[in-house]
Amino acid sequence: FAAREAPKPLASRHALVTSGPTYEPIDPVRYIANRSSGKQGHAVAASLAALGARVTLVSGPVRLPDPPGVDVVAVETAAEMLAACRAALPADIFVAAAAVADWRVEAAGQKLKKDGGGPPTLALSENPDILASLSAPSPDRPALVIGFAAETNDIVAYARAKRLRKGCDWIVANDVSPATGTFGGDRNSVYVIRADGTEEAWENLAKTEVARRLADAISNHFETGKK
Ligand code: CTP
Ligand code: CA
Q: Which stretches does the entry tag as region Phosphopantothenate--cysteine ligase (predicted)?
């Protein structure tokens, strides 16, 4: 007879994860994007699913396969990402790993043409902050909200301030200075900063290993009930 499998630690939990870049249209044929590959966010979604969570992954355009056992919602713009996240609530866990464009363009309805009048001026407006919005106190707020902070310098100091500003419980600060090759690469060096004041450095690990450690930390958090 078959041995019964041990229950997985995040079974019964719903995790919402954002990943990848957003694309912000300039006109019907052009857009502004960024260099996020989605590797870290997709790996987090896969690791949470491996621990038994039901995972909704809201992702901007990436060249990655859907992680196994994860519900993927494909979006392009920051506004679509926010709407898809809200639609996926309630969730116990929210991990904001996407590189959301800070600004969108007031997009033209038709293709902009070289009409002899010189280059167009792009009018930008600020995008909604998905992490801050889902972190805000509300009956729908996920019990554990985790942001990422991409920094090139003064990483820990900026990340501490960012965690407070966003209202999230933990922030995973990653060093994206060009020498690290983090953007698009397979490795990451991160600092995990928690509301309880604990800080840990996880240095020079595969993004998949960062994801496994984060999923383990999340599962421990729910087991011990501490923030
Ligand atoms: N984020 C978000 N929505 C935005 C911008 C950022 O959800 N419109 C999330 C990211 O997914 C990440 C965290 O906020 O989890 C921090 O993103 P980051 O770009 O480092 O922070 P910003 O507040 O945009 O500050 P800046 O880019 O100026 O450093
Ligand atoms: Ca930003």
A: 15-227
